[in-house]
Write a structure and sequence with these properties.
By secondary structure, this protein is of the alpha/beta class. 43% of the residues lie in helices and 20% in strands.
């Protein structure tokens, strides 16, 4: 059986492709090999994989993940082999998952807007051009982390509207020192920052929040999307919770930069399943 996984830094969506088209969908936490070791991933999988599934029958795993660049694939491969010793592992970037789910075998532009950001041009088979998003410290414009960072910065510097500041305190009871400690002293600060995008969405009708999100998407286009050659000839296709949740505002910015609106998906897993259902059986040799 095939096991398909699409992993961001926060959440992994899985599908166990069982016989007769009966598929089992489930989720675990995200497994970015830049932030987690093989041992940490194994411990998490042991706790979070569904026990009722026939996972011992998995012989082929297609894992698409944030941070799964060539130099980091071994981290995931080692972890998966510990849990699924008989399976052949095929590990790719989550960006390829986005392109396959959004475009199938057609060429075009694909983006991820979730906890982090990534973008590419795709020729229907492979990624042909990728401009580095630079991660959450230097870049990731338009992501949940970028939106959360801006919100937290405005809160700490006391420049957000008073009514939003009062709502923030009532919900989180975080002082500026609490936030600084969380970001600079604990693991996965990108997840911490991105978590506040939910608060932004709760108050999105407020002019301040709408502008915060709009400016995040403008920064995405100014610093990343517009750097692709002839970017305006493509439709803007996007997967991820941020792009999907704020698609009305994102569409405004897409039109501002004279791209066509394409497909917006919250998660690519169903598109990936359809893509792999159409594929022939993969040769039985392990691959990194």
């Amino acid at each position: 059986m095939k096991l398909i996984a699409d992993s961001g830094s926060t959440k992994t969506s899985w599908c166990l492709m069982q016989e007769k088209g009966e598929h089992l969908f489930f989720t675990t936490e995200g497994y970015n090999p830049y932030f987690l070791s093989s041992d940490e991933i194994v411990r998490s999988l042991q706790l979070q994989l569904p026990r009722e599934a026939a996972l011992d029958q998995v012989d082929e795993i297609h894992f698409y993940g944030a941070g799964c660049y060539p130099e980091k694939k071994e981290v995931l491969d080692t972890a998966l082999k510990a849990i699924f010793p008989s399976a052949n592992n095929y590990i790719e970037l989550d960006l390829l998952a986005a392109a396959r789910a959004l475009l199938g075998n057609e060429a075009g532009f694909a983006a991820i807007l979730g906890t982090g950001t990534n973008t590419c041009l795709y020729d229907g088979k492979a990624i042909t051009h990728n401009i580095d998003s630079l991660g959450y410290i230097l870049g990731d414009e338009g992501s949940g982390t970028a939106i959360g960072k801006k919100l937290l910065g405005d809160y700490i510097r006391d420049v957000m509207p008073q009514d939003i500041k009062e709502n923030f305190w009532q919900e989180f009871h975080l002082t500026p020192n609490d936030i600084i400690h969380e970001i600079y002293s604990k693991k996965l600060p990108n997840r911490f920052c991105a978590g506040f995008s939910r608060f932004v969405h709760q108050h999105i009708e407020h002019t301040y929040m709408h502008e915060l999100v709009r400016k995040a998407f403008v920064a995405l286009f100014e610093n990343l999307v517009s750097l692709y050659p002839n970017f305006q000839q493509y439709s803007f296709n996007c997967v991820g919770s941020i792009g999907y949740t704020y698609q009305a505002i994102l569409t405004e910015v897409v039109e501002q930069f004279q791209m066509k609106q394409g497909t917006f998906l919250c998660a690519p897993i169903e598109g990936l399943v359809a893509y792999h259902e159409a594929l022939p059986v993969v040769a039985t040799h392990a691959s990194l």
